[in-house]
Amino acid sequence: MEQLKGQTRLPKFAVPKRYDLSLKVDLSACTFTGSVQIDLRIVEETKFIVLNALELDINEVCFIDAQNQKHCSSHVVLVPEDEILVLVFDNELGVGDGILGIDFSAALNKHLKGFYKGYKKGSAVVRMLQDYLGDDIFRSQFMFSGLHGDSERQWIVPINLRVSSYEQRSNFLLETKQGNFDLSELLHASDKNQEQCNNHLWVKVNMEQAGFYRVKYDDELASRLRKAVENNWLSASDKKLGWEPIFGESHLSALARGEVLMALATLGHKKTQEAALERFQVFLADRDTPLLSSDTRRAAYVTVMRKSSIENRSGFDALLNVYQEADVVQERTRVLRSLASSPDPNLVVESLNLLLSGEIREQDAIYVLTGISLEGREAAWGWFKENWDLILKKWGDGMLLTHFIRDMILPVSY
Length: 414
Prior knowledge:
Number of strands: 11
Strand content: 15-25%
Radius of gyration: 25 Å
Oligomer: single chain
Number of domains: 4
Largest sheet: 5 strands, antiparallel
Structural class: alpha+beta
Low-confidence stretches: 116-121
Order of helices and strands: EEEEEEEEHHHEEHEHHHHHHHHHHHH
Mean pLDDT: 81
CATH topology of the largest domain: Zincin-like fold
C-alpha cells in the first residue's frame, strides 16, 4: 500500500480506458450522489486499483472481469494528500479487460472543480460572492432552491431570434414571467411577395444556444424549422465540419463533428445517410481508411442500422462482423451502441437477444440498451418483461440490473 502513495502518476498495472459517469445533484442540501462504470484494462496481475479522487464517500465497489467473475473490494483507502483512491481486493485480478463499478456520494463545496469552478468571464466574481455571503445566503439570493413568488426574484432571460433569414433578427430581455413579441416587426414583405414570404417563413429562437434555456416550438413552427433545415436555408454545421478531420482544428470541433453527424443520421437526413453508407462500404474493405475516422464511425453505424430490417439485414450482419473482428474495446462499444437503433422492432428484439446468447460480454449489455430506437421501445419493453427471469438471474447480483430497469422503463413511461 505505501508504495502507491506519493507518486506523480497513477500505476500502470491497471489502465482506465473509458468512464461512463452519472451524477445526481441536490442543490438545496449541497450534496451529490453518483455512479461510474469504468472500462478498465488490467495489464499486470494486481490486488490494487488506483484512481484519482478527492473528498468522496465510496459506497460500493465491484469489478467484473473478462470471465464475468465479480470481485468486490475488501478495503477502500482515500489518500487526500495525493488525491488518489486505492481499491484493495482479496484476490489478484487477472490480466484482461473488465468493468469497474463505483457508487459514491459527497458534499458540494468550493474545492470541487468539476461543478462550478469554471474559467469563463465572470465566474470568479460568482465564487467571490459565494465565499463572502456564505452558502445559505448565496443559495437563497440566487434561487438555487427553485423558490417562486417574489417578482423581484424573477430571472431576466436574454432572447435572441431570427425570422426567415440571419439578417432579420431581434434581441431583447424578457423581464417578466410572460411576454409577447410581434413577428411582423421583422417582416417587411410587399403584398406581391407575401405568399412567397409565408412559404419561406421560419423562426429560430436562442440562435447558437446563447441563453441557458430550452425552446418549445408548437407543431407549425417546428414543421417550418424542419423545412428550413431540409432546404438548406439555415447554416449547416455538418457542411462546416465535414466528415474528415481538419488539420489544426480544436478537440471540440472533432467532438462536434461526431455529434452533428449522429443527429443527422438518426433524424433521417438523406445526404448524410448516403455519405455514411458509402463510407461504411469503403471501411468494410479497408479498416484503416481515413474516410471514416473514429469520431464519425458511430454515425455511419447508426445509418446502417436505420436502413436495416429483418427483410434487409445485410447491414446488420456486416456490423456484427465488425464487432467480432474488432480488437479494440472502443470499437466494439461503438458497434454495440448502434445495434438496437433499427426502426424495425423485430430487429431491435434480435439485437437484444444477443445479450442472452453469450455473444456479448455481460458487462457490455449497457451499451446495447442505451441505443434502442424510438420505434423499438415498445418491443424492447415486451422483451424485457418476457425475459425478466433470465435477466434477473444473469445480472441480478450486480449494479448492471439498474441499467436494465432504467433504460427499459423510462422510455415508455412518458
